[in-house]
């Protein structure tokens, strides 16, 4: 039996459906589904909705992990499955577990907290194959540059990569 592959997307809930970021995130969902990834995300609107929409449009699976602590259990209408958690920590644990690939889109404080906790957990794991984290968009250039210069040791720089857009992400994914 083929092992299930999971990709988790972190990104803002408040993104406009007409934005370029939203459209590209739909394409990311489609690409991941076409490459046999099951998508996990926070389950709400914006980038989470977009990746779910893309995945399910290609008959892929999109799992939304919502949280009572956030104030709503109801996920977006494109989800194949919704998992309701009590706390943000429980939510993040499910989003991280068994994930091979993380995609980070523009978001706010919630996205940053998810990413930083994920980075810390991944760097402490003692596994042969650590997941890769792709930051998509120029908004991440200064953030990642600062992290690499001041906070993250050189031997851990291979954990993540910045790509400017969907086409660059697609090229990277298909090379792996």
From TrEMBL:
<dbReference type="GO" id="GO:0005829">
    <property type="term" value="C:cytosol"/>
</dbReference>
<dbReference type="InterPro" id="IPR052341">
    <property type="entry name" value="LOG_family_nucleotidases"/>
</dbReference>
<protein>
    <recommendedName>
        <fullName>LOG family protein</fullName>
    </recommendedName>
</protein>
<dbReference type="InterPro" id="IPR041164">
    <property type="entry name" value="LDcluster4"/>
</dbReference>
<dbReference type="Pfam" id="PF18306">
    <property type="entry name" value="LDcluster4"/>
</dbReference>
């Amino acid at each position: 039996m083929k092992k299930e592959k999971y990709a988790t997307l972190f990104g803002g809930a408040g993104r406009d459906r007409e934005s370029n970021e939203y459209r590209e995130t739909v394409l990311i969902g489609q690409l991941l589904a076409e490459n046999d990834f099951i998508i996990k995300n926070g389950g709400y609107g914006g980038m989470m909705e977009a990746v779910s929409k893309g995945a399910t449009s290609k008959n892929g699976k999109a799992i939304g992990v919502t949280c009572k602590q956030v104030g709503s259990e109801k996920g977006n209408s494109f989800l194949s499955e919704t998992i309701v958690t009590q706390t943000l920590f429980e939510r993040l644990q499910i989003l991280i577990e068994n994930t091979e690939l993380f995609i980070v889109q523009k978001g706010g404080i919630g996205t940053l907290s998810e990413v930083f906790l994920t980075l810390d957990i991944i760097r402490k794991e003692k596994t042969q194959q650590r997941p890769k984290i792709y930051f998509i968009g120029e908004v991440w250039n200064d953030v990642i540059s600062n992290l690499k210069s001041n906070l993250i040791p050189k031997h851990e720089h291979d954990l993540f990569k910045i790509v400017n857009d969907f086409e660059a992400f697609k090229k990277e994914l298909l090379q792996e």
